[in-house]
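tool_call: predict_structure(chain=1)
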Amino acid sequence: MNVDESVMLFRRTLTAMPSLREWADALWTGAARTDHSSIVGSMLGAGVGLDEVAPGVAFIPNFGNVTVVDGGDGLTLVDTGSFLTAPLVHRQVRAWRTGPMLAAVYTHGHVDHAMGMGPFDDEARQKGDQRPRVYAHEALAARFDRYKLTAGWNQAINTRQFRVPGLRWPTEYRYPDVTYRDRWQLEVGGARLDLRHGLGETDDHTWVWLPAQKVLCTGDLFIWAAPNCGNPQKVQRYVREWADALDAMRALGAEVLCPGHGPPIFGADRVAQALDETARLLRTIHDQTVAAMNQGMRFDDVVAAVDIPRDLLERPYLRPVYDDPAFIIRNVWRRYGGWWDGNPAHLLP
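tool_result:
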């Protein structure tokens, strides 16, 4: 399917998804499916449009979702989207609120989440206002530095992964103005946002809790698919700590979950279930892999020894449509055991 065909299919599909909440409920119940491997799947969310998910909190479905918080005295973004979707995000925010954009939080440094500040910076400059302050974990700047160092490699692998001919990997980034290490209580524009660091898909990941609204912004620690913790073309990811972060989120009793990809989850029971089962999937893969490694098994035998709970993979938010449990096993192996799979023929073939 080419891009034009995908757009046409997307437009036909959109007529059956008139609202964000209906889309979210259809995915939860299994009446609709989310597809993270196609243009249709990523565009579906972008077409639904901004919706207010709690008082003063709006959610913008996109390839990388954006959440906007209005504290009464100004606005804060949680993630900003990509440079491709930045103008659309700006228009949707301004159709919702006209107050000053005071701040943004990057949940992590992936380019579909941290490349959308341009229109808001331009707006502030044109008005003679101070540009919004960007907050992120202290490891994020090093990620941007690495992206510059390996721009050609990132362009090649992302062109292949997302099947986007002519993709140009960015070499200029909007670095954060303020960084933190473990946790940060951000008071801005009359709103409180609690920032917490959690290793997971990245080493620079932040998840955000809005205590007054009971809204949780997970970034890519929850993506409506089996956790992307084993991507074979990306740097180390952190299975055990990812599960720990999900458990910490669940303890807060959130009533709305705004994920990095896919629709929000509404209702405390659903939020708790999604976080718990995602953590359980990660933890059992991690613990079984380590147990097999501790028996001195070779990699192929480790993969065969790990019993993946198929009931969890059948959940609409844990289907292995973007990552595969075998890749997660390999990532655990790489972290604790290096790159060699135990086959002597693979050392110097």
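agent: Residues 117 and 297 are 48 Å apart (CA to CA). Proceeding to next step.
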